[in-house]
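User: Can you fold this complex?
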Amino acid sequence: MSQESQKPLPDALSRGASLKQLSLINLWRSYCRHHVSSAHDSLRRLLVQPLSSLMTCLVIAIALALPQVLSVAVSNIDQLGQGWQGRPSLSVYLHQQVKEPVAQRLLSEIEKRELIIEGRFISPEQALEEFEEHSGFADVLGKLERNPLPPLLQLSLAEEASLEQVQALQADLQARGEVDQVDVDLQWLQRLQQILALGKTLIWILAGLLALGVLLIVGNTIRLAIAARKEEILVTKTLGGTNAFVRRPFLYTGFWYGLLGGLLALLLTEMCLFALSGPVAKLAGSYGSSFRLIGLNWFDAGFLFLVSSVLGWLGAALAVGRHLAAIEPK
Amino acid sequence: MIQFLNVSKRYPGGFDALSNLNLTVDAGEMVFLTGHSGAGKSTLLKLVMLMERATRGQMVVGGQNLNKMPRRQIPFLRRQIGVVFQNHQLLFDRSVFDNVALPLLIAGFEPRDIGRRVRAALDKVGLLSKEKLNPIALSGGEQQRVGIARAVVNKPPLLLADEPTGNLDPKLSAEIMKLLQQFNDVGVTVLIASHDLVLIERMGKRKLTLEAGQLVGDEPEGGQVDQGGLL
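Assistant: Here's the predicted assembly.
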């Protein structure tokens, strides 16, 4: 050591007392370099502990995938409803005593209206026959003294008929003397829409709560990371590291947690949809429908990544803001 | 380089670490700061780095008034001050090279400059061959030299050392002091807090003596001024 220390000062140190002035462009470049190295270094740290990182990412993924799967389900049911909304129909129940000729006259009169595409008269006898056939209550029905079913006019409406038009028609028909009751087969659809709207609201609330959960998970993980690297933070601050410099790697860590969590969430969502697609196709097939599940599109996936990485970053920012200021060299 | 005018530091709880301190250290000086534990040596160094704020008084370091310095400016002050700690404060999760490179990364040097400067600093402290090792594999004296290399790597005009030889035997201590003096020889202002009186005497530099937060002795370089039996 003593021999080595006797050496003349190397050129790089011999100028001694002056901190080299860094130009603005150099500072900008070093700023960008630090972003790249922080991003790289924080990702490396995550990958060094794959299992615990995976656990954290998985928790984030589940929290993100849950509302995602639910919203896919709701939009599929919505889609299904949209498909059926096209052909609304009215069931016009006539009074028991209305005879077939009267009913037929009424039908041909109603059929002239523009909204109605076709009408069909179903007599009480026909109705009973169909009912016996489909319900399996033939024995019971046979014991009835008289047919309890009313004559019925079944009207198919044009696809473009709006809800208001259908309701106006319903009120109009209801007002006629022969008519006992008019059922709009659209009502269940209306209710479905309302239930779906409620479902969507619930999903947003759920998503909000789970997003808060993601913030806390990332925040807590970053808090532990800060505690684990306390020495490094102290030394960095002593050597003149700015708060932004110290913060940066942790913000990137949060960002990576979010992004990887989002990736896993996408994977989970797709797996759920894949698992559901078979049974759904079978169910749809049994109804003679060619309905297929609609999965996530590119926009949804992009949005998921954006939300997840922003949440990760934000969670880290909250933790860093709370805990980093407390670490000052003493 | 360093000017203290009526500087006092009272810690929360009422302990006066420094009271009414007046002190000037010129650029290019090498000064020892001595005194018993608790005399205020470390506090003085902390005030220079703004790890602590003075309770009263005026402080100017490197031409900058520390009283008015906002928090966000503190990092840039610290980049102009090299610090050597008794426990060297090296990071054991990275190599010797990366430890020494840290101040340059913080200051935003170009990667090729970083390599050149780190190697120059390590060469100066005689540890160029150990740049790839983890500092935990080094001896106490070597770790302290890595700490010195890190303190001088970005060529700060001011070098502070807080008990740099505290854990070392006399021979290693002398080597560390000699190393610090070489930086002073090329113009770096050096302020060393130490209670190794024998070593300080041998160096023959200016010596400031603190007692209970007050400056009770100021021996100029090469001088042996009587301190009224204080020492």
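Residues 91-155 of chain B form one domain. Chain B touches chain A through 52 residues (CB under 8 Å).
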